[in-house]
Amino acid sequence: MATIGMKTVMKVNRPEVLPNQTQWLESATPEQLAGTLATMIADQLRSALAIRPKASLAVSGGRTPKAMLQELSLQSLDWHRVDITLADERWVPEDDSASNAALVKAWLLQNNAAEATFYPIYTGEKSAHKGQQHCQQKLAPMHFPLDVLVLGMGNDGHTASLFPLCPSLKEALTTQDICIATCAPVDPTDRMTLTATILKLAQNTHLHIEGIGKRQVLVQAIDLKDPLQMPVSNFFQQPLAIHWCP
Hints:
By secondary structure, the protein is an alpha/beta fold.
């Protein structure tokens, strides 16, 4: 067991196949996980702000991170010096229920974090492919490498919008660009994602997953070692903190 702040983090379900450089931070409940992860992110942002005028954070969408984003919004730090963007986005406007930008605005850009600067990656063009250069330009003022990155993982082993065997996956894994248009196997299929190069350069990377099923997917991805079939495996060759609860 390990202690972070005043919270105890268990390791009893740490998969044996995890690389040595990977942290396994296990919480008893989703609420405890949300609080522990939010505290770690805030600490890492404070450390970045201690040596630089600005800090950068990229978060993921979906249902899993909502409680964590809300906990993070309550953290006390110089939010007016923090730039926030998304690891990926569905190519829909913010008034669409599928928008990750709308989720971030509703759950993170409130309370103390209302002072942060948000860089959305949906730019309004007809398709993500047509908006790729515009997105690149919009993100350019942010500090890269990212100071903190929070990823999720799907049951197919995708992370951000790096989907198994999608047409642009090989390019998304190798290009030096900031972002790239990709295609998801479910609606809305049109996506924009930060590239694997940009994601892997993050100073602090967190993978937020919940449930026995996600742990099984994680183990499968580590065993398979194939970034084309399970793109999340791209992130096991470097320091990574995995936050999990049953």
